[in-house]
Write a structure and sequence with these properties.
Number of strands: 2
Number of helices: 22
GO molecular function, one term: heme binding
Helix content: 55-70%
Protein name: Quinol:cytochrome C oxidoreductase
CATH architecture of the largest domain: Orthogonal Bundle
Distance between the termini: 113 Å
CATH class of the largest domain: Mainly Alpha
CATH superfamily of the largest domain: Cytochrome c-like domain
Keywords: Electron transport, Heme, Iron, Membrane, Metal-binding, Signal, Transmembrane, Transmembrane helix, Transport
Oligomer: single chain
Largest sheet: 2 strands, antiparallel
Organism: Chryseobacterium koreense CCUG 49689
Strand content: under 5%
Amino acid sequence: MISWRKHYKKGLVAIGLLLSTSASIYAQGDAANGEKLFKANCTACHALDKQLVGPALGGIVEKVKTEQNLDTDWLHKWIKDNKALRASGDKYANEIFEKFNKVEMTPFPNLSEQDITDILEYTSNPPKPAEPAADAAAATDANSFTAMEQAKRDSMNGKVIIISLLAICGLLIWLLVRLRQLVKLQQTEELEGLNATRATSFSDLYKKYSYVGKGILTLLAIFAAYGIWNWLMWIGVYKGYKPEQPIYFSHKIHAGINKIDCQMCHSSAKYGKVSEIPSMNVCMNCHRNISEYQGKYFEPGKDKAFYDAEIQKIYAATGWDAGKQQYTGKTNPVEWVRIHNMPDFVYFNHSQHVVAGEQAIINSFNKKNPDAKIDVVCKACHGQVDTMNVVQMANDFTMGWCIECHRTTEVDMNNGYNKEYFKNLHDKLKKQYPQTEGKITVDAIGGLECGKCHY
């Protein structure tokens, strides 16, 4: 009987160990899946290695266990519905809430228990980033060596070219001297008499061929006047102008790759006369939680460290302390370099074009440029901004350029307002210009009146 009981107890112990082992194996999460879930749900407020809106989550399981003697069940409850956990009177949950300025964490009831286990596994054992291959370093050294060799060759080639040019110059001088000597030897009395009748100066030549000279001078004067006129007409036209800005901002990354709408930053373009430069607070709407560049696109010659440094310039300008997640109150205004600037005597209203003329401008542009169609009205004037790393002036922005647009852009007469407001004008123009087939362009409704743009 005693022997049977001993074996029975041993069996229970073995079964208990087996169950606990099985439980621990079952609790083991998938770090790779956890990384995906973490990036999709958590990175807006958390990072593994530093505090953002919420605390750093690297090693959070061990930290909670060591400091608070709480297991992963508590973390599951917190992630699922932290508000309910706080409402239950949980001391640690309420301490965290108070510590982080009573910013309520988003509950994640959509995450399964296994999903949360995977996320916690990722915070405890994040996959190590792949180490750069050894041959990459070797390739860098080889490239450096090749560059040095190329520089030496270029230097040597430059010296050879200079010596060759000097030798050619010396040879030409020698040939000129010899030719002069030969001319003197062949000089005769007959040639001397002939030379006496020849023009030997510009004034003699001008007297002999005065009519030809006057004609040439007249042509030169005409060409000079045209050149000066053409130069004057292009004063203030800076197509292609793209100045360096105090903070590097890539529209290709923001508007192109990340698909951020133009009007999210330039909101006044739709409702105001001027499309304002966004304030730094607009930048901080996103970059409060984006402290480093995580994209895969890199402009040639620039790396992650470059983009991270530019984000730090935003923090310096706004006085944002990323470590404490609060503003210091010390700001440094950014002196942006303006690219587009209408003269004071020109009236241009962005909202009129962005709202009233949006579809008409897009349709007109796409009709004239079938190979470079646009989907946003801004691109008609400012070019394909979503492909520009550095924004540049894409068009002339001259009076002639604006007039040409007004003459070719058709007014949308199916628009309820236009259909009613321009009804009589529409009927009149259809009779007056039957060849237009009822189409009305902007110039027909006052788009060429001087007072529209100059007042």
